[in-house]
Structures are given as C-alpha cells and as structure tokens.
Amino acid sequence: MPEISTHYLYPSALFADANPHIINTVLGSCVSVCLYDPVLKTGGINHYMLPFWNGQGLASPKYGNIAIVRLIEKMISLGSRQPNLVAKVFGGANIFESELEHFQIGERNIVVAERTLGEYNIRITGSSVGGNLGRKIQFHSQTGEVRQRMISKQKCVNR
After folding, report:
1. What share of the chain is helix, strand, coil (3-state, %, to 5)?
2. pLDDT in tens, 127-158
3. Helix (H, G, I), strand (E, B) or coil at 35
4. Is residue 158 included in any domain, yes or no?
5. Could you list the residue range(s) of the whole structural domain that residue 47 is in?
6. First-to-last CA distance in the chain?
7. How many domains does the chain divide into?
8. Cβ distance 32 to 25 under 8 Å?
9. Residue 126 belongs to some domain of the structure
10. Domain containing 147 — which CATH number?
11. Does residue 62 fall inside a structural domain?
C-alpha cells in the first residue's frame, strides 16, 4: 500500500487535494471544518481564527465566513458535488483566561460553522466543540476519519 502524504495545516489556511493526505492541526479557540465527499473519497479542511471578516483588509481564510465558503468551492473545483459533502467540526474552546474571554471567540467560531454549513445544506456528521481544552486533530482525507487528542491550555496558546 503506498504511503500517504502528510500536511500540517497552519491557522488562517485551508487544504484540499484529490490525492489522499493526512492533515494535522492544533486548535484552541480556532475552528476547523473537515469536508468529506464519500462518493469521490476526497476531503478538505480549514483552520480559521475569527468568525467574521469585517470588510477591511484581505478576505482571507483567517475568518470563518470566508474559510468555509472557500473550502466548499475548493472541494467543488476538485469534482465534488455539493449535495454529496458532509462535515465534521472541531475546536472553539474557551482557552483565554483574561479580558479576551468575554469576546467568546470560540463559541462565535462554532456558530459560524454551524450556520454556514446549514446555509449550504451540508450535514454535520460529527463534532467536538467548545470546552476549555485545545485539540490536536488528524484528518484522513480519503476516509473522512478524524482522530482527536485533547491538549492542555499551555500547549495551545501561541506565545
């Protein structure tokens, strides 16, 4: 059996490819949406930091409302049909023990994923969201399988 390529997904990015990959990322208050096409056996993932682009600067995958739509578009460009796509959602933890906590970034990131996927009629087949711990996830794009490990706060806060 041929070796599967791996890819590390940084914040504010997305990744989808017709070839099988194992994609790793680490999430705190950020959210990743994993899209999978069970017909083509292909998948893609994003990693966004904030819920909404405010119209200033670059409309990048740093923002959930941009990252999710771009991931859907990327999957379609690889041959997927939107009705075939299913999603899994991860992240959105409350990891800030400071004045940032009242912004509820993690919770708002989760809501954006759920609403946007709903608007595109993409069913969420699995999720692990919220809480106070970060997550390390590994997405297998050929099977749609996601493995998760919870991680302590000090490991997921950027310093």
Report:
1. 25, 35, 40
2. 999 999 999 999 999 999 999 999 986 544 44
3. strand
4. no
5. 5-151
6. 40
7. 1
8. yes
9. yes
10. 3.30.1330.200
11. yes
